[in-house]
Hints:
Blueprint: E1 6-10, E2 33-37, H1 49-60, H2 64-69, E3 74-78, H3 85-94, E4 98-103, H4 106-114, H5 125-136, E5 141-144, H6 151-161, E6 165-168, H7 175-178, H8 182-206, E7 211-215, E8 234-238, E9 244-248, H9 256-275, E10 278-284, E11 286-288, H10 314-324, E12 328-331, E13 337-342, H11 343-355, E14 365-369, E15 372-375, H12 376-387, E16 391-394, H13 411-415, H14 423-436, H15 455-464, H16 466-472, H17 478-487, H18 491-503
Parallel strand pairs: 3-4, 3-6, 4-5, 6-7, 7-10, 10-14, 11-13, 12-16
Antiparallel strand pairs: 1-2, 8-9, 13-15
Amino acid sequence: MIPVMAFVPAAPAALPRTSYGGSRTSCSARASSFTSRGAFAGARARPSRAARQVVRAAVDNGLAAAAAAAAPKRVLVLGGDGFCGWPTSLYLSELGHDVIVVDNLSRRKIDLELECESLTPIQSMTERLGAWQSVSGRDVRFVYLDVAHEYDRLLDLIIREKPDAIVHFAEQRAAPYSMKGSRQKRYTVDNNVGGTHNLLAAIVESGLDIHVVHLGTMGVYGYGTSGGEIPEGYINVVLPGGRQSRILHPSYPGSVYHATKCLDQILFQFYQKNDSLRITDLHQGIVWGTNTAQTRKDERLINRFDYDSDYGTVLNRFLMQAALGVPLTVYGTGGQTRAFIHIQDTAKCISLAIANPPEPGAQVEIFNQVAETHRVRDLANLISEKTGCEVKNITNPRNESAENELDVANRKFRSLGLNPTTLEVGLLDEVVSIADKYKERCDKSKILPNSFWNKTRRRECEEFGLSSFDVGAYSVAEEDAMLYSLSKGDVATMEKLRAVLKGS
């Protein structure tokens, strides 16, 4: 049994705050941070040497609760080359788990499609894994496999390796990319839903008892103001006739990407009910940060930093703009409230979920994997105060509420002892250590939006004007300013001149 640890909420002065009273334990639109302290409780039998190594590593990483229950496991990490998958794989390896990364490197291929690389210079998988072995003494294996389209190979891998847990990151993760066009929409559905179903079907066919840990999204709940706290996955309802039931929280996706996560939920519910699979679904907020304690050990282990309008989160785009010394572009009013969590805490939450699988036959376990919530304009103002950059509002390419509240329950991870990194504590370091350090690798033309939710949004963004987009937002970008002046603001002429310059 994992000891429940003390958890004391606190809010930094630089961001708007919400007061807490009574037994309230959720984070709201104005809540900013959480801190926790705790220690082991109760005596345990002396574990094996391997288990002691896991405990020691977990204690070193500040996870006493995880260490109390940890035991070495074989873990497949699907999508282990990606932004969340890579640091999670290293974190699990450092804890003593036998980690096998499974990936088809599709995210690297999308870099080529979008003509925009990670700001940080990420290495090949061979280079990455060799570097990890040299600095940690631990081996992480790699299997090149397309989960969505190579079912037989996936099944063979599961039967051969007999993993205790499978962490499922192998999904196209960007909402804007999923709305870019019909091809990207179809790819997102085929890859995400097909991959999830292949995984579940393969586990059933293998006959093995494997715990699935899936990275979902807070977006399954939708981002309209709900009028109350968003629970962790389930709500109690009274059906017609007075019968009481416990059902999944209604889904309200805001993009094709979010819709695939809603479909994942339905598949999980079915396979749990029909085949008693053990599944944990983590509804995660926006992940910020780049490196973890593990990826900092060697430059070759560095994690992705996406800053473009399709894959770059709102924070990454703001940080990139701040490093370049250009205005921070806020979509619409900036009244959108979103949940956030640091990349190191994502890895910690995955390890906690692995250490605490549902009992056989239990319903799908759902955690809200968030640390804090903020309005976009508050984040822009925070970064502006720290860096001196101007804030500019531009037309929103997304079809979403201009303003919303977000009150999120996150009791489960808090009770397990998670002590998250907050934006107030770690944000400025991210500007200096990543965005500013690698800013020469940035293609400034990729930051502003070029994926639109529908024809109306596209038209409104076009009517907003390229002069406001490029020149107003990028007054220090000499090339754009020159082209705008030469073309007298005519978009077609600007692009012709740009093509001539590239040709010369």
